[in-house]
Sequence to fold (407 residues):
Amino acid sequence: MDETTTTAALPPVRHWPALDLFGVEFDPVLAELMREGPVTRIKLPNGDGWAWLVTRYDDVRAVTNDPRFSRKLVVENDVTRLAPHFIPVDGAVGFEDPPDHTRLRRAVAPAFTTRGVERLRERARRMLDELVEEVLADGPPADFTERLLGPFPLAVVCELMGVPSIDRPRMHEWTNLILSSAHGVERSQRAKEDMCAYFADLLSQPRDGDGDDDESVVGLLGTAVANGEITASEAVGLALLIQIGGEAVTNNCGNMLFVLLTHPEHMARLRAEPDVRPRAIDELLRYIPHRSAVGLSRIALEDVTVAGVRIRAGEPVYVSYLAANRDPHVFPAPESLDFDRSPNPHVAFGYGPHFCVGAMLARMESELLVDAFLDRFPGLRFAVPVEEVRFRRGALIRGPESLPVTW
Fold:
């Protein structure tokens, strides 16, 4: 961060409406804000007041890694935000600062190590193979959101969590309600309360402490509570955020498939050159819009200068990972989809202490899904005109509501 403070007047507060955008279109308001400067001021549809917005790659990484910006204080303040409802519950790891944040993440860390994710890979592959076989048996056309992009990540995150298969449909329904403003504040809040009650009950059940049960997230959380490392309410808050975060793969991979279907030359290359796929997934992660507007804010604990702008103690700050991933100083020709881009230090999974705990899991699921699209469905293409593909409305995480395809 630049410690040279300018004396220029404060930038104007820009109203940033909740836009329902088509496809992977980059948010035009965000594009304007990026052009206006590396640090601007915004007002979102809900909450009070305004907040700073940081968009330049180096500044985004600096703010997210700076302990002078607090997530925990956000819970106590009605910061301007996109959603009409406020998702966090008591002990939510996303709204804790170190050392409590570190303590909470440590409780579930074994499930998200390389070993933990690889332990799940073969089971995930089998679950996906079963879903693909059902789609192939039924024949085209098919809605891939309904048949693959929805059920597969849900099955994987529930497997990781230790949620019985019989309970997965209501987990999916609760998640959709929590992550959308389209159904109203009351339904979203009720869904959050229902999911919390479910996990509280699941965590209270006796566990045998043996085998896969003990290695699930719920098993790890139960052990951490029993050992006095975290409280029961903190365990519930962790479980909720991991569960709803796991289903973000549905939208992100839906966006990836939409990009490939609208860029058939890229899809053809990935079929012909499988070795390119890992780089392609990184580039797709950089390129796709992961969310609407911005994510979670922070509050300055003291005066801090960012890109020459003095942010005062108590003022809220947002960073935009979407903007950082389009910074031309880091990513030449950022609007281009380049599967040969190297290096590709994208921040699609965040940065700093709040780097996404499930990043390796999400990448593993993306790899399996992209392989399935390319290898199991030759001739894959849209079954309707592209302009008829429906995208989610009022969603905090952008993605296709349906993907009707044929092959």
